[in-house]
Amino acid sequence: MRKVGGWRERRKAIQAAKDARGITLLREWLSPEQRAQFDASTCFDVIGCHTGKRYRIRQGTATNVYEIDGTGKPAAGWCFVPSGDLVAGDVMLAQKVALETNEGAALEVARRFGVYSSAREN
Predict the structure, then answer these.
(1) Taxonomically, which superkingdom (predicted)?
(2) What does DSSP say about strands 74-79 and 43-47: parallel, antiparallel, or unpaired?
(3) Cα separation of 39 and 51, whole Å?
C-alpha cells in the first residue's frame, strides 16, 4: 500500500508542477491589464481580431470561452481547444492567441454552447 500511496503523491506533484508551468507561461503572455484581471478572478478578456468582440477566457480546458455582450455579461459560450493533453494554462494561451490573431478560424472550429443564469451573473 505504501508504494501505491507514494506513486500517487509523485504523480500529483508532477501534475502540479505542469499546471504551475502552464500558468506561468500564460501570465508571461498576458498584457498587464489581462494579468491583473486573471490574478483577481482567474479569467481575462481578449478582443477578437476580426469582429472586435470581447471574449472572456476562464481558467479551464474546455467550455471556458464566453462572448461578452455590451453590458459585460456572457452572451454565448464557445468551446475550442488545441490538440493534445495540455494543462489549463497552455489551453488558455492557445485560445487567447487564436482569438487575437485568427478569430474567424477559431470560431469556425468552435462549438457554441448556451450560457445559463449563473454564468451570466459573472
Answers:
(1) Bacteria
(2) unpaired
(3) 27
Instruction: Report whether 55 contacts 48 (CB < 8 A).
Output: yes
Q: End-to-end distance of the chain based on CA atoms, in angstroms?
A: 44
Q: Taking phi first (over 0 means left), then psi (-120 to 50 degrees means alpha), and beta for anything else, what does residue 65 get?
A: beta
Q: What is the pLDDT of residues 58-101, one digit of tens each?
A: 999 999 999 999 999 999 999 999 999 999 999 999 999 999 99
Whether residue 43 contacts residue 59, with contact meaning beta carbons closer than 8 Å, is answered with yes
45 within 8 A of 37, measured Cβ to Cβ: yes
Burial category of 49 from C-beta neighbours within 10 Å (exposed 0-12, middle 13-18, buried 19 and up) = middle
What the block records as the C-alpha cell of 76 is: 454565448
* pTM metric for this prediction: 0.88
- Distance between alpha carbon 27 and the CA centroid of its chain, in Å? 12
Q: How far, in Å, CA of 58 to CA of 68, rounded?
A: 12
